[in-house]
Amino acid sequence: MKKRILLLLAAACGLQAAEPANRVVISADMGKDTISAMIYGHFAEHLGACIYGGIWVGEDSPIPNTRGVRNDVAAALREIKPAVIRWPGGCFGDTYHWMDGIGPRESRPSIVNTNWGGVTEDNSFGTHEFLDFCGQVGAEPYIALNVGSGTVREAADWVEYVNSDAKSPMTELRRKNGREKPWNVKYWAVGNESWGCGGNMTPGYYSDLFRQFSTYMRAGKLYRVASGGQDPDVDWTETVMDRLLNNPHNAIRSLIQGYSFHYYTFARGWNDKTSATRFGEEEWFDTMKQTWAMQTSLEKHIRVMDEYDPENRIGLIADEWGNWFDVEPGTNPAFLYQQNTVRDAVTAALYLNIFNNHCRRVKMANLAQTVNVLQSVLLTRGPEMVRTPTYYAMKMFIPHQNAVLLPVETTCEPLTSGSRSIPGLSASASRDGKGRVHVSLANLDPARDKEVLCDLRGRGKTGRVTAEILTGRALNAFNDFGKPEEVRPAAFSGFKVSGNAVTVRLPARSVVVLELE
Ligand code: AHR
Questions:
Q1: How far, in Å, from the CA of 90 to the mean position of ligand 1?
Q2: Strand 258-265 vs strand 223-226: parallel, antiparallel, or unpaired?
Q3: CB atoms within 10 A of CB 187
Q4: Spatial distance between the Cα atoms of 129 and 68, rounded to a whole number of angstroms
Q5: Ligand 1: which of 193, 327, 338 to mutate, most ligand atoms within 8 Å of CB?
Q6: CA–CA separation, 349 vs 238, rounded Å?
Q7: Whose CA is nearest to atom 9 of ligand 1?
Q8: Cα gap 362→294, rounded to integer Å
């Protein structure tokens, strides 16, 4: 009653109700770009226990497996619909000689992984095993070629071995190794971080090598991805675009289909990555701030690409992204093994919302890395496996895969730390093939709830609304071996529907995905 009188008084005085501080205006009748399912991709490198132990245990392992691939890991991955998986690196890719990883396993040479801890690998996981793994989890394979220390012939042969149906020495070798039909792999990276571990090249030199390697990749319909520069180096992007696209020869212009972009969140920077689990509100803020900065960097590269490729033919391929914290105490520093908390889930949602909102140009993204390395979706310890908070964030975002992006305008309260401030809310929205709208929201505030008005414009009356939430009781809540899951999605009813507006009470440090029929 008191509230009604106050409202009447306000109206009598000509006062308008204040605009809500947190508002997401969704143009439900617009939208022309599709969010490629490939944005929900992963990256698996020969690094620490990602491949050996995490994905591959071998056929003779007591850990249940299918042709050497862990059953628990494959089943968990299938559930999150990993559209694409990139392999074998990363830095490892530019030292990898693919012929070491084919043929009878007992005859494959052991090698030293010089990038990651100097460990010896027996090459039991190679091309056939990777492609079998992709088949088991339902992902498109994406293979990174060795440009740093490999040869053009080696790269050309690999493409032929994998993709050709003709009669040739490479295809005969493949058949001898038990695979009759080609796999027809479309996605190929031509080198990785060629500015650094991939050969310490200059952009001009790399561009020429890209042209040379790409020329001889001839089998199949290929999507060739050029290495990007070290973020935020737009000069590298300028040079690669210029040398490939600013060219009268169509034969050169048509060599490139994608351009790679890597971005990691290091909390306070490369030299102060901080712990993955022991942190306070300040480190939380640093992590969110550095993740938001990805958007600025992404947009800089997109602007250069727009200039050279106004037809939007070339995809920006964010083939490494995620949080990079200190390794867990007592683990090999070269193995990059880190735990994963609700903070990782919130940053994953922020990354994914940014990629969704830039899907006109961003055609693929690959979380680094799949199992046991950096911001993994799964952790393993012997026969045990844990689904991380990031796993669940990826799972909740599945409805965005192949849906039409809807433009959103987000207004929100800032998240502050001392004199620093960033937007405290992230959102993206899409319309699926059945006309349902999905809105993904992340409350970046570690301690305070937010009331968020989601205002759907240009659409008939909203029908049934359902929602899921992912949050944790503490800032650093995580899932661990041998314990019930602390962080997992739950049905969420903290919202009210009124006409075409949904007001959501968004708990602190949470990810919510709404489905509006
Ligand atoms: O993901 C770990 C490493 O980070 C990759 O090998 C490299 O490409 C990047 O620098």
A1: 5
A2: parallel
A3: 23
A4: 8
A5: 193
A6: 30
A7: 90
A8: 13
| Residue 17: predicted pLDDT | 55
Q: Looking at the predicted structure, is the pLDDT value of residue 56 above 90?
A: yes
Give the pLDDT score at 267.
87
Is the pLDDT higher at 273 or at 1? 273
Nearest CA to ligand 1 atom 6: 90
Closest CA to 347 of 322, 365, 380: 322
To which residue do tokens 């008005």 refer? Answer: 453
Catalytic (active site) residue 311: no
Cα–Cα distance for residue pair 443/438, rounded to 1 Å: 16
* Angle, helix 127-137 to helix 152-163, in steps of 10 degrees: 50
451 is catalytic: no
Confidence of residue 13 (pLDDT cuts 50, 70, 90): very low
If we measure between CA atoms, which residue out of 286, 406, 437, 301 comes closest to residue 362?
A: 301
Q: Is the CB of 91 under 6 A from ligand 1?
A: yes
Q: Give the span between the Cα atoms of 195 and 197, in whole angstroms.
A: 7
The answer to whether 228 and 239 are in contact (CB under 8 A) is no
Atom of ligand 1 nearest to the CA of 89: 6
ω before 369 within 30° of 0 (cis)? Answer: yes
Give the closest residue (by CA) to ligand 1 atom 5: 90
Backbone angles phi, psi at 329, to 5 degrees: -55, 140
Residue 368 CA: nearest ligand 1 atom is 1
Ligand 1 neighbour 320 (Cβ under 6 A) = yes
| Token duo for residue 216 | 């001889």
Percent of the chain with pLDDT over 90: 93
Asked whether the predicted pLDDT for residue 12 surpasses 90, the reply is no
**Which domains occur in the chain, in start order?**
18-30+406-516 (2.60.40.1180), 37-401 (3.20.20.80)
Per residue in 278-326, pLDDT (tens digit) is 999 999 999 999 999 999 999 999 999 999 999 999 999 999 999 999 9
pLDDT digits (tens, 9 = 90+) for 429-461: 999 999 999 999 999 999 999 999 999 999 888
Q: What type of residue sits at position 246? A: N
Could you tell which of 42, 43, 45 is best to mutate to test the pocket of ligand 1, judged by most ligand atoms within 8 Å of the CB? 45
Question: What is the position in ligand 1's atom list of the atom closest to the CA of 369?
Answer: 1
pTM listed for this prediction = 0.95
Which tokens is 260 given? 């790679």
193 lines ligand 1 (CB under 6 A): yes
What is the average pLDDT across 15-37? Answer: 87
Which of 127, 133, 131, 135 is closest to 108 using CA atoms? 127
Tens-place pLDDT, residues 177-191: 999 999 999 999 999
